[in-house]
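Minutes, structural biology subgroup

Action item carried over from last meeting: produce the structure token record for Putative dehydrogenase (Deinococcus peraridilitoris). EB confirmed the sequence was re-checked against the source entry. Recorded below for completeness.
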Amino acid sequence: MRIGFLGFSHVHAEGYLALLRAMPGVEVVGFSEDGPQARDDETRTGLKHYPSAHVLLGEGLNGAIVCSETSLHRVLVEQAAAAGTPVLCEKPIATTLEDALAMKRACDSRGVLFMTAFPMRFDSASLELRHAVQSGELGEILGVNGVNHSENPAAHRAWFADPLLAGGGAVMDHVVHLVDLLRWVLKSEVVEVYAQVQRSPSSAVDTAGLLLITLGNGVQASIDCSWSRPADYPRWGHLKLDIVAEHGLLVVDTFAQYLTVYASGAARSPEWRGFGADPNEAMLHSFLQALERGAEPAVSWYDGYQALRVALAAYESSQLGQPVRLDSAGPGIVAGNSR
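Output recorded by EB:
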């Protein structure tokens, strides 16, 4: 299985590379990237650099992972579709709905598989949560509180804080993960968004947001998203869900399994090192299996599109100072299968 990276600027790119290199039967061919960072990435990773996505796609790839700046996703997906190469695309899938729809048209016209990179669907705690909700074990769901915090990723990849390249800040970066989990677990679409979005004085993009959302089944949920963790915090961040239900309260803290490591002279000590299964690895396996079988991906373009709609609606709501209503699917969109 020959895999290439279209762009390598995302903070998850090197992690994906390490996981793929450990998988039997997988060859990572190389990456395409513009700018001065490309040579550093090639030297550090030992991965071959290609001058353009077009050249890399000409190497006979079985699949491509789009890990570029978000604003470049559209052109890279369109190039992959033109080459007939299936795509795993980082989230958010685009900075605008127009770009997201263009990506769908490109893939549909060539029958090319498109999978959205939402690894939290493959997390063991998330899977147990979904079973508990959909089996009826918890009874009626009364409400959900969601939290997704992290460091400011601009310290690692500066483009995350560039509004033209990223399309936004903490809201774009974090809301999409929780929205996808809520849609997947509750099997319902978001129909209303009310949000307050703020940014720190030194940032060109938002660094915090609080959303109150309503789903089509009547469940209300809050999403607290921020880049509030300091650089010396023991771990990157966390993702939590509190499910308030008829028969009890279920708390999911997806990164709570960790060891506290103290190291003298370390730049970042103490450090919380997680253990257990890596949802990114399971997501990559799912993508590879879809390629091998020619099957529908576990997370579709539609899932990425719906999460993006909510993030963009949050910005609109904050600007207007009032709730924003969403139709269940989107203009001209047929609801997909959020498995």
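Discussion: The radius of gyration is 20 Å.
Next step: EB to file the record with the rest of the batch.
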